[in-house]
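User: Structure please.
Assistant: Input sequence and predicted structure:
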Amino acid sequence: MDKLAALALTVVSLALMAAERPSLAPQNLRPIGDQTLTLTQADHQGRPALRAAESTPGPEGGRFIILPGGDFGDGVVELKVSGSPAATANSGARGFVGVMVRATADASAGELFYVRPTNGRAEDQERRNHAVQYVSPPDWTWQRMRRETPSRYESYADMEPGRWIPLRLEVAGDKARLYVGGATQPTLIVNDLKRGAAARGPIALWIGPGTIGHFADLSVERR
């Protein structure tokens, strides 16, 4: 083996070693807020998964689940998500499901990327355009972003409620790239993460109001 090949092998090996696979076992996770979020292990679409559902209707901002593993700044988060409206959800439910990075300990602030699965194949182009979303609570809500900078922080991707949706989120400084559904090009590009380039914090899973969410195949690479 020549030196170049050996170096390439070393680089690949280090990259593989850097990837973490945090446990999605319910007992290892920390739901935020009261006890109305139920976490269970389930088989979903033929894949072992974490199931998250509200036992009673929750806050408008949805529910967060803090992952083990500590601070995250720059790096890559990959996982599969599935979201669908609960039977008791109102007509505005979209099966919202996603992931927050650089969160505060109580998830009151962070960089949140999520999808609206029922919008993916809606018979309305405007709804399709709102299938993928970036927000940064508490100040940068989807309502504010859509009002002040229409279409900048939203995009379209093909998806269906209840089906697995692969997500790959790359974060570097104040920039992020979200790849949806195994795409080789980013579905959503954000060049001005609202918490700034130096922000750090835990990773959290998220389901929106009226959602039954599933999560699987979580991988985290810190850089």
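The mean pLDDT is 91.
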